[in-house]
């Protein structure tokens, strides 16, 4: 098995655990369900100089439209840490995709 399927499997496991513990948590729990779509943002979450891909930004915009107060909360989910994402860098992804509001978190 190659590394990518293993990472995606681990991501799915963490996501499933997170959703289970977040049930009833409301809007952000629904936004966390979009973590797999945002996995393509991982390279931009590791390196602040790496431009987010168009696919990444489309996924970020979808989360922003569905749950505007939870955009950055999604990037702080433990699933992203499995992909080597640095939280302080991940919090800049929405801004780098042209989204001004990151919810309750502030941009670095």
UniProtKB/TrEMBL annotation:
<dbReference type="GO" id="GO:0009627">
    <property type="term" value="P:systemic acquired resistance"/>
</dbReference>
<feature type="signal peptide">
    <location>
        <begin position="1"/>
        <end position="24"/>
    </location>
</feature>
<dbReference type="Pfam" id="PF14368">
    <property type="entry name" value="LTP_2"/>
</dbReference>
<dbReference type="InterPro" id="IPR036312">
    <property type="entry name" value="Bifun_inhib/LTP/seed_sf"/>
</dbReference>
<protein>
    <recommendedName>
        <fullName>Bifunctional inhibitor/plant lipid transfer protein/seed storage helical domain-containing protein</fullName>
    </recommendedName>
</protein>
<dbReference type="InterPro" id="IPR016140">
    <property type="entry name" value="Bifunc_inhib/LTP/seed_store"/>
</dbReference>
<dbReference type="InterPro" id="IPR039265">
    <property type="entry name" value="DIR1-like"/>
</dbReference>
<dbReference type="GO" id="GO:0005504">
    <property type="term" value="F:fatty acid binding"/>
</dbReference>
<keyword id="KW-0732">Signal</keyword>
<feature type="domain" description="Bifunctional inhibitor/plant lipid transfer protein/seed storage helical">
    <location>
        <begin position="10"/>
        <end position="100"/>
    </location>
</feature>
């Amino acid at each position: 098995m190659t590394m990518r399927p293993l990472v995606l499997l681990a991501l799915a496991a963490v996501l499933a655990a997170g959703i289970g513990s977040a049930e009833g948590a409301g809007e952000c729990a629904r936004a966390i369900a979009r973590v797999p779509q945002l996995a393509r943002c991982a390279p931009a979450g590791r390196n602040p100089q790496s431009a987010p891909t168009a696919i990444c930004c489309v996924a970020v915009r979808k989360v922003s439209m569905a749950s505007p107060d939870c955009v950055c909360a999604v990037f702080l989910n433990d699933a992203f840490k499995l992909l080597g994402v640095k939280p302080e860098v991940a919090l800049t992804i929405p801004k780098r995709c042209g989204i001004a509001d990151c919810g309750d978190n502030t941009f670095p």
